[in-house]
Design brief:
alpha/beta, 3-stranded mixed beta sheet, about 15% strand, about 290 residues, 7-stranded mixed beta sheet, Spore Coat Polysaccharide Biosynthesis Protein SpsA, Chain A, 2 domains, 10 strands
């Protein structure tokens, strides 16, 4: 029936597995749960080994990091069922009917459930990531018709469609591998259904880690655009950049970014980080890299 696939890295996935396992049993579905750690060599994998003691569940830790795209492809290749449900570790279903909601749509090609944030604000050094989820990712279901938001934190897909559209394994770092993946599906005319069935992001990235991931994502985006793998209009950042370039202000934005970067980081590590300043940080870093020779 369904293979639940959980890529993880340096995270204790047992609570997530136990919840999904319980819901699968309650819905009387044939299933398997596969969890792969992508070479983190973490001490937490000792706890994850307990997953192997649960029926129809498998945990495996790899010694080498193969990347976010490759680990998802490997999970799908080793899945035995024709339906694949991907769930990121570091998330948790918001609803006790999470699996039930998906099961009603098992006939669909691709279903994206979305993501939301913890209700309680985390400590200040984790607040920027929490705020980004709250203001930029949690509106996926509400706004998808106006401006589709791509979120691979949890999605259902027919295995045949996945195997014909694997994640691009040349993308090793964090960011935009999911945008490229869903864009390829759309170009082939495969329908993507958006539903209100989010997982809760646990806001486990502190600000410095999140900013590093942000920069990695911008670097990936530029590479995908320059190699013609992704259209420049698939990202608001790139669309804004090319608009600025037309009026010759992109270099000025890059200059302002360089001057203000240290000040921006002070704000991001405060109790009241600004999501608008974070938007500027992303755009400024994009402009900076695009103007480097």
């Amino acid at each position: 029936m369904v293979s639940v696939l959980i890529p993880t890295y340096n995270f204790n996935a047992t609570n997530l597995v136990n919840e999904i396992y319980k819901q699968l049993l309650n819905n009387k579905l044939s299933f398997e749960i596969i969890v792969y750690d992508d070479g983190s060599l973490s001490h937490l994998n000792k706890k994850n080994e307990a997953i192997n003691n649960i029926s129809n569940c498998t945990f495996k830790a790899f010694n080498t990091n193969i990347g976010r795209s490759a680990i998802r492809n490997l999970l799908a290749i080793n899945a035995q069922y024709d339906l694949l449900l991907f769930i990121d570790s570091g998330t948790f279903p918001e609803s006790e009917n999470f699996i039930l909601k998906y099961s009603k749509l098992f006939n669909k090609s691709v279903v994206i459930g979305g993501m939301t944030c913890l209700k309680k604000k985390p400590k200040k050094h984790y607040r920027l990531r929490w705020l980004y989820t709250k203001l930029r990712e949690s509106n996926l279901y509400k706004n998808h018709k106006k401006a589709p938001s791509i979120c691979s934190s949890n999605f259902l897909i027919q295995k045949d469609f996945f195997m014909n559209n694997l994640f691009d394994e040349s993308i090793k770092k964090y960011g935009y591998e999911d945008v490229l993946f869903f864009d390829a599906l759309t170009k082939q005319g495969i329908d993507i259904t958006y539903i209100n069935n989010p997982v809760i992001h646990n806001a486990d990235d502190n600000t410095n880690t999140f900013l590093k991931k942000t920069e990695n994502a911008i670097e990936n985006l530029i590479e995908l655009i320059k190699t013609n793998k992704l259209d420049k209009d698939k990202s608001r950042i790139s669309k804004t950049f090319y608009s600025l370039k037309k009026i010759k202000t992109d270099r000025f934005i890059a200059y302002c970014f360089v001057l203000s970067k240290s000040i921006l980081k002070i704000n991001f590590n405060s109790s009241y980080p600004s999501i608008l300043l974070y938007d500027f940080y992303r755009l400024g870093y994009f402009c900076l890299l695009m103007n480097k020779k």
